[in-house]
Amino acid sequence: MGAFDIFKISASGMKSHRTRMNTIASNLANVQTTKTEEGGPYKKREAVFKAVDVSDGKGFAGSLSKKVEGVEVDGIQESDKPFLMVYNPGHPDANPEGYVTYPNVNMMEEMTDMTAAARAYEANVNVLTTTKDMFLKTLELIK
Questions:
Q1: What residues contact 118, with CB distance under 8 A and at least 6 apart?
Q2: DSSP H or E segment with residue 47
Q3: Where do the structural domains in the chain lie, given as residue ranges?
Q4: pLDDT in tens, 67-102
């Protein structure tokens, strides 16, 4: 693996976790949305990741015929968790029995996921910073 592959891997992680954080933010923003354009309550969305080859086939990684894998978002899928039913007969979206169907978004889970995504993003930033610092130290040694 070449040094520039480290940049590619970290950049792919940062991009993927940014999408994950945006998806979580959307879930949090719609935690009380009982009616959407599609009909029914908002459905929780989750980012799905997959490993991808980020090597260009050159250099050390290419000579060993090994893949250098990063990550990318494969898609955004809707959660299959059940909706929350709350008895509130005065709500405009209540069914005939008086229950309102709320989104399947758990605020505590979303905040935990947001913290994990932010820490993963930060870890990738730290890898980029450390690699850059190593490059600069190497250049100082050459002087």
A1: 17, 21
A2: strand 45-53
A3: 3-142
A4: 668 899 999 999 999 999 999 999 999 999 999 999
Question: What phi and psi values does residue 86 have, to the nearest 5 degrees?
Answer: -125, 130
- Stated as kind and residue range, the H or E segment containing 21 is helix 3-29
Secondary structure element (H or E) that encloses residue 100, with its range: strand 99-102
The pTM score is: 0.83
- The separation between CA 62 and the C-alpha centre of its own chain, rounded to angstroms, equals 29
Burial of 37-49, coded b for 16+ CB within 10 Å and e otherwise, reads: eeeebbbbbebeb
As given in the structure block, the two tokens for residue 58 are 């050159």
SS3 80: coil
Question: In terms of Cα–Cα distance, which of 82, 113, 119 is closest to 99?
Answer: 82
Check residue 137 and report its DSSP letter.
Answer: H
